[in-house]
Design a protein that fits this description.
The chain has about 400 residues and is α/β, with parallel strands linked by helices. It is about 40% helix and about 20% strand. It is built from 12 helices and 15 strands. A 5-stranded mixed beta sheet has the order 6-5-4-7-10, with helices on both faces. A hairpin with a 2-residue loop joins strand 4 and strand 5. Helix 6 packs across helix 12.
Length: about 400
Amino acid sequence: MAGTPRVLRAMNDRAALELLVTHGPLTRTRIGELTGLSKPTASQLLGRLEAAGLVRTTGNVTGRPGPSAQLYEVNPAAAYVAALSADPAGVTAVVADITGAVAGEARIAADAVVAEGAGSGTARVVTAAVDGALGKAGLGRDALHGVVIGTPGALDPRTGELRYAPHLPGWHSRSLLGELGDALGAPVVIENDVNLAALAEQYEGSAQDHDDFVLVWVDEGVGAAIVLGGTLLRGATGGAGEIGYMPLPGAPLARGGPDAAAAADAGGGFQSLVGQPAVLGIARGLGLEPAGVGEALADARVVDEVARRLATGLAAVVAVVDPELVVLSGTVAQAGGERLRARVEEELTGLALPRPQLRISDIEGDPILTGALRTALVQARDAVFDTA
């Protein structure tokens, strides 16, 4: 069939590049062993990828009998991506090469960019953050292959408008995505921040080897990401997992809808029971004056009450989704740690028939940025590693 040799070459190229990304520098012989290619074919493959600027030599294997073997690695400069995390206070950006090595990072406060010139203030904050990270990496915008931004809420696939995030002013224009792409000169993807945290858990955290799990984010805000059959569940308007609005006993209803100003910070529902402000409120109700949620959750009585409330909300999620695993993430979960996890597990017993595993996130650093970077790298590699 016409084109088959070209397609097979492209498949072999992609397999070799993925091996180099995963395992680091490899010899021609080792690449041949891992791919099943003959030595001549592996040599042709490496010559082809080197000529295309996708691989480079990086020294030799020494300390063993016989001639030294040359090592090959993915050329880090084959492509660069940017990953961003946005919140009401500002935007954090990291720039990484195609191997995933971070080359620069910057944080820009939401009010740090003077409102002058063309474009929205949001676009200026985003470009300032990206430019700051690029500058630290010694790169310009022309180096970017793609950008992924994690935000609260979700883009409605029907309208392109950010929903479920009334507390993120300036991000709700239907033209924002195009405006950001034009400003940065690269494709831009805006993704829900909790979904990105779940992807991070699936890739390198507590949810590795699990295709059915729920990540529950308990922080200033509360949300969930639902992964079924290895795929994120998004919903018709992108709002799957917006459990912060979920009505529960003891919580005021989140009136006004998910996009109304009155619904900022959910205004009620599950979030008003277990978010950071609620945890601090529980502690103050017990006569404590904690400086933060960590100090509040050092008290066993606070842990008990937060666990009871968390279990009530989780029972509703578990009853509907029946996941094999629930991962607790966000500052409240991290501050409560294993003691909170164990108490939630105890409280959940009897509230829901399914018995999922319950774990605390073990991602180091910011899981939202980790997930955004992982998403950006997958997209870049799909394009750059395709030699067909």
